[in-house]
Specification:
By secondary structure, the protein is of the alpha/beta class. The strands form 3 sheets. Strands 3-2-1-4-8 form a 5-stranded mixed β-sheet. The two termini are 37 Å apart.
């Protein structure tokens, strides 16, 4: 196959956590909770116009993408030109069963992306805080056999470190680490292989048919047990499970990356901005968190405006 000959779409999850209607719906569902936890902090839902700049990076560095699907909860960005033929707004009600709604858990929403109407067999998935820094081609995401390139960060002793941290040092692992470990254990149980590499936390490539098969056949029971998790939970199964299974079935090509290829900027750390400019990686993420505040978000937006000043065709 020639990677230039098949359609490739990109899917985003997006929420405007500043929207009072959405906030009222969330708070009514879960009750008012602490805003300083990693599961339910302000940075989990805050909209800092990251999607606008991510789309600018896509237009600049990956203009070959066919359709842009933006999955939302009865919202749409005020700056978005929805008349643009490449942009499709997808409401959660279009892809998720009624019994799992409302949902405020991206890990759960991700398990239904294969239901997006019209989604290409070959697609990319991105959070709204993920960006391109360099020109990329379809062959940077899919090999000539049609299977995706799976980018991981190498962690050869992850299983041992997990044991030492949890059993000996009595450390409480983050929900993110727990859900990745859950995915590794599931694949090891079903396929007899343990993948220690962790997500590079940026744009990833998938086959729609493989995602559908994992969700509806291979891990149907396990995924269904997550339907109760309308908020992030330690028993979520991180989406890396799709990639681990693709590797186990030889439906994917593993590629280890470093921070100079794919870099995560923690927006509350000033030194990370310098590293981003020094590394100039192909992929980068502007990661908000419970440690970030309003000043950090302002600095992040200033950096994005500096990198992507030109208005895209997707904006009004």
């Amino acid at each position: 196959m020639n990677t230039e000959n098949f359609d490739i779409d990109i899917v985003y999850l997006w929420v405007d956590g500043n929207d009072p209607i959405w906030r009222a719906k969330r708070d009514a569902f879960i009750g008012k909770t602490s805003e300083d936890s990693s599961r339910n902090c302000e940075g989990r839902y805050a909209d800092n116009d990251e999607l606008k700049y991510s789309l600018r990076s896509i237009e600049k560095y990956a203009p070959w993408i066919r359709n842009i699907y933006i999955v939302t909860d009865n919202q749409q960005p005020s700056w978005l030109d929805i008349s643009c033929p490449k942009v499709k707004i997808i409401d959660l009600t279009e892809i998720m069963p009624r019994e799992v709604l409302p949902c405020f858990n991206s890990s759960l929403i991700e398990k239904f992306l294969h239901n997006i109407p019209g989604l290409a067999e070959h697609f990319l998935y991105s959070n709204d805080d993920m960006f391109l820094y360099k020109t990329v081609k379809p062959s940077d995401f899919f090999m000539p056999d049609g299977y995706p390139i799976i980018r991981l960060k190498s962690k050869p002793f992850r299983r041992l470190r997990w044991y030492l941290d949890k059993k000996l040092l009595k450390k409480t692992p983050s929900t993110y680490r727990v859900t990745i470990n859950m995915a590794s254990k599931l694949v090891n149980k079903k396929y007899g292989v343990y993948y220690s590499g962790i997500p590079h936390h940026n744009i990833d490539a998938y086959l729609k048919s493989d995602c559908k098969r994992v969700a509806e056949e291979i891990l149907c029971k396990e995924f269904r047990s997550n339907w109760k998790n309308q908020m992030r939970s330690d028993d979520d199964i991180q989406r890396i499970v799709y990639s681990y299974i693709a590797l186990a079935e030889k439906h994917g090509h593993r590629q280890y990356v470093t921070a100079k290829d794919s870099f995560v900027v923690k927006i509350h750390k000033a030194k990370d901005y310098k590293k981003l400019l020094d590394y100039q990686p192909t992929f980068f993420c502007m990661n908000d968190s419970e440690s970030a505040g309003g000043t950090d978000r302002l600095r992040s937006k200033e950096m994005l405006e500096r990198l992507f000043p030109k208005k895209s065709a997707f904006e009004k």
